[in-house]
Write a structure and sequence with these properties.
The chain is 74% helix and 0% strand. With 217 residues, the chain is mostly helical. The chain has one domain. The longest helix has 20 residues.
Length: 217
């Protein structure tokens, strides 16, 4: 019973509509009516710029971390590694679902990638750091947040199944499911990437200007 209550609370934490709150508070708009219509960090970067996009990304990651930390309210799980990991995954997934289908925002949310990585950061920081490294590297090279998110999501099962060779079955299934979920929720982005119509985020423009100047010279 206590576990169910914590999972519900984790869902409510994930449902906090960070991007919507910021867009209405500072710009008096509904972020879901602009860009891709998505309430997540990628669309916030696109519509409101890198400053607010970064705030939303970090805030959404903190939602995942806060949800996972709820296991501390049940002392039994603190000293039982297997049960603790399973509960942490359940709490984190509840937060991700809350982000995608937020009760506070008419169930129209984001894709849950930032919340997902916050969740993984709380469960196993080493794997999260590797996935974030993939994300940052791809973002630096391409400036596509969608592509960065997809490849970081695919990196998760690679880390869990092969690099760290985790033996917990639920964790392995979860990692594969996450990669599939990230790809499925980015189908429109994948289509735009293949057509060359995907928007790049407005960061690292100084790097592009330097490249253009070099070409002119």
């Amino acid at each position: 019973m206590k576990e169910i209550l914590l999972i519900i609370f984790a869902y409510l934490i994930g449902s906090i509509p960070t991007a919507l709150i910021i867009s209405k508070r500072f710009f008096d708009i509904d972020i879901r009516e602009y860009g891709s219509g998505n309430m997540g960090a990628t669309n916030t970067f696109r519509v409101l710029g890198p400053r607010y996009g970064t705030i939303v990304m970090v805030s959404d990651m903190l939602k995942g971390m806060a949800a996972v930390a709820l296991y501390n309210f049940l002392p039994h799980y603190i000293h039982n590694e297997l049960d603790r990991t399973n509960l942490m995954i359940g709490l984190g997934l509840a937060a991700v679902i809350g982000h995608i289908f937020p009760i506070w925002a008419e169930f129209r949310g984001g894709k849950g990638v930032a919340t997902l990585f916050g969740m993984i950061l709380a469960i196993q920081p080493e794997i999260a750091v590797l996935c974030v490294g993939v994300f940052i590297s791809v973002l630096y090279i391409t400036r596509y947040i969608s592509l960065s998110s997809i490849l970081a999501g695919v990196a998760l099962p690679i880390c869990v199944l092969w690099i760290y060779n985790e033996h917990e079955v639920f964790y392995r299934v979860f990692a594969v499911a996450v990669a599939c979920l990230v790809v499925l929720t980015h189908q429109k982005n994948i289509s735009r990437l293949l057509k060359g119509n995907e928007s790049r985020v407005p960061i690292l423009k100084h790097r592009d200007r330097r490249k253009n100047r070099r070409k002119l010279l």
